[in-house]
Amino acid sequence: MITAQDLHIHLGGNHILRGVSFEVAAGSTFGLVGESGSGKSTVLRAIAGLIPGVEGKLTVDGRLLGAKRDKRFYRQVQMVFQDPYGSLHPRQTVDRILSEPLAVHGIGEADTRIARALAEVALPSSARFRFPHQLSGGQRQRVAIARALIIDPEILLLDEPTSALDVSVQAEVLNLLADISAARRITSILVSHNLAVVAHLCREVAVMQGGQIIETITSEALRAGQAYHEHTQQLIALSHDLEGPAPV
Fold first, then answer.
1. Which are the contacts of 7, defined by CB distance < 8 A and separation ≥ 6?
2. CB within 8 A of 67, min separation 6: which ones?
3. 3-state DSSP call for residue 242?
4. What span, in angstroms and rounded, lies between the C-alpha atoms of 245 and 175?
5. DSSP strands (E only) in the chain
6. Are 203 and 28 in contact (CB under 8 A)?
7. Confidence band of 10 (pLDDT split at 50, 70, 90)
8. Nearest 10 degrees: CA dihedral of 142, 165, 86, 43?
9. Could you give the CA distance from residue 165 to residue 150 in angstroms, rounded to a whole number?
10. How many CB atoms lie within 10 A of CB 89?
């Protein structure tokens, strides 16, 4: 469903991505992990068309992506950002936030779709006419997920979707994403620094360092600590000391 071949990005004289290549099968969740500044979020922004001057080849569902993305692309691909505080308009109600993508893509039955979207992310109907500041962080991220899902995309780009949330609600949101992706057979790329999260949600994981993919490993091998690259082994060792358990 998604292929990246030899991606390079230069920004401000810096070589941000250095020959990144990977493939994501339809209906699967692919993980990108690495320390801060490794380039993992940059990969998502490159796919989404948010970074200019990407060198290399990107395809989605067999279509070669150019410098600009068309409306068809954004109907098929949606992104959930890290910060639920910054990704929602503070002066729009949840109803307006969810209505906007429907209007942009000319999709009708707004009332039915909004009600269904709220139910799908386990938000009460009373949240529909609230503003973002009237919701908790976890509820805001559920709204962001509902906004991404409401136009029925085939692909989700997930940029550390729970790192800004309290630990107590992280597992709830991650399990919600896993359940929805499985039910809809959505193809996803999940960026995270938490190895426990990606091992739980992803079939395959690419480890990044310095703008490169240094190792691609299955979730089974990751959980078993069977990494061959020294940096991956260090991340696994740190995760045992620093990270909480994966969601259940």
1. 17, 19, 20, 21, 43, 46, 54, 55, 56, 57, 58
2. 49, 52, 54
3. helix
4. 13
5. 2-11, 14-24, 29-34, 55-60, 63-64, 77-80, 155-159, 187-192, 204-209, 212-218
6. yes
7. very high
8. -90
9. 22
10. 11
Region 97-110: mean pLDDT is 96
Distance CA 138, CA 140 (A): 5
CA distance 233 to 164: 26
Distance CA 212, CA 120 (A): 36
Rounded Cα–Cα distance for residues 218 and 181 (Å): 19
DSSP, collapsed to helix, strand or coil, labels residue 236 as helix
List of residues 6+ apart from 105 with CB closer than 8 A: 71, 74, 75, 151
Contact 156, 181 (CB under 8 A): yes
Q: How many residues does the chain have?
A: 248
Sign of torsion over alpha carbons 13, 208, 43, 120: negative
Q: What is the pLDDT of residue 189?
A: 97
pTM for the predicted model, two decimal places: 0.92
Residue type, 46: A
Confidence of residue 242 (pLDDT cuts 50, 70, 90): very low
More confident of the two residues 101 and 227: 101
* Measured distance CA(119)–CA(139) in Å, rounded: 12
| SS3 readout for 216-234 | EEEHHHHHCCCCCCHHHHH
Place of tokens 């067999």: 62
Alpha-carbon distances, residue 58 vs 54, 123, 234 (angstroms)? 9, 35, 30
Instruction: Give 13-26 as a DSSP string.
Output: TEEEEEEEEEEE-T
